[in-house]
Design goal:
six-stranded mixed beta sheet, Rossmann fold, OB fold (Dihydrolipoamide Acetyltransferase, E2P), 8 helices, 2 domains, alpha+beta, five-stranded antiparallel beta sheet, single chain
């Protein structure tokens, strides 16, 4: 059986009138690690529940292996799920939690022991097999939940914000672990998160959801460097793209200007349409230039030293900007001469948010 997943114009409405997913089209290839990312309430968990068979679509089709999943019982879908709260049985030992799915499938005791011990070794939790969940740390519980999934080894692996309860220092290690396990198993994975770092580091492709709608699907590189929507540009990055609403005016002499309040910028290229528009600049897309070539003179209000780079806060007009630089010889209250790297800035339609 193939484990490809397709959403064809899928809408899910919860009574009385809450639209959780709105005409979703999404294809997850067999063996792919797809990350679905977006803010709380955007429909991410509903999408997972539709794959697992815990909910049914209001309209449209969810296909698994080219078959309409609506007619398939959850057990027929060969799906396993890891939840944010791990959903471990508190009265069972770690061994029995991991073995639970195997016992339901009536596998033999020797088979169960061999599979549980193999998975426990892989996840480095052999010493914990006799403990109960309340004797474990958050990171250990997460490994047990992952172990339960891996021992049963279904064709489709679903993850619902599995690192939401972990301390930040454990997350990087668990991301590496998950990536390594996927490289070994090559199972189809759909991973839901609101954390853009998890999306960028784990996803072979990323689906960005907002208000139940798909804004963009692409590789991490495409999502970061070619955002198709203002929201995607602002969501990814630390900090994300900074956007200024303004307008472009084309003068008869051929010079074009972008203006927003006290900001007035001469544009090096004028093929953009005149009128309302939004300019997006990432913190790394500023450059320090000579005073005569500067678009702005700005004062460094605050400098964050992040080790390998500095994040400089400046005020321009009524806007606060961040500049990311590896330069270490910049000090608070110093005057800076800066210009956008025009080849890297993004332009968005003012009212729809779509990239131009």
């Amino acid at each position: 059986m193939s484990s490809e997943i397709s959403f064809n114009q899928v809408t899910k409405v919860f009574p009385p009138k809450t639209t959780a997913l709105d005409s979703i089209d999404l294809q997850v290839k067999e063996g792919e690690f797809m990350v679905v990312v977006g803010p709380s309430g955007c429909g991410k968990s509903t999408l997972l529940r539709l794959i697992a068979g815990l909910d049914e679509p209001s309209s449209g089709q969810v296909l698994i292996d080219s078959k309409d999943a609506t007619s398939m019982e959850p057990i027929e879908r060969d799906v396993g799920m890891v939840f944010q709260n791990y959903a471990l049985f508190p009265h069972l030992s770690v061994f029995d939690n991991i073995a639970y799915g195997l016992k339901i499938r009536k596998e033999s005791q020797p088979e169960i022991r061999q599979k549980v011990e193999t998975v426990a070794k892989k996840l480095d939790i052999q010493e914990l097999l006799k403990r109960k969940p309340n004797q474990l740390s958050g990171g250990q519980r997460q490994r047990v939940a992952l172990g339960r999934l891996l021992a049963r080894d279904p064709k489709i692996h679903l993850f619902d914000e599995p690192m939401g309860n972990l301390d930040p220092q454990f997350r990087a290690a668990m991301r590496a672990e998950l990536a390594h396990l996927h490289a070994e198993s090559r199972r189809t994975c759909v991973y839901v998160t609101h954390d853009q770092a998890e999306a960028m580091t784990l996803g072979q492709r990323i689906c960005v959801l907002r208000n139940g709608q798909v804004l963009q699907i692409g590789t991490p590189d495409e999502i970061y460097n070619q955002p198709s929507h203002r929201f995607v540009a602002e969501f990814f990055g630390s900090p994300g793209t900074q956007c200024i609403d303004g307008k472009i005016e084309h003068a008869p002499d051929g010079i074009s200007k972008f203006t927003s309040g006290k900001i007035s910028l001469d544009l090096p290229h004028s093929e953009l349409p005149g009128g309302s528009i939004t300019l997006g600049i990432r913190p790394e897309n500023w450059e320090f230039v000579s005073p005569e070539n500067a678009s702005f003179t700005a004062t460094a209000q605050r400098i964050e030293n992040l080790g390998d780079h500095r994040l400089i806060e400046v005020d321009i007009g009524a806007h606060k900007f961040y500049i990311k630089t590896s330069k270490s010889d910049i000090y608070e209250k110093e005057e800076l001469y800066i210009s956008p790297r025009w080849e890297s800035v993004k332009w968005f339609e003012r009212y729809t948010g779509k990239r131009i």
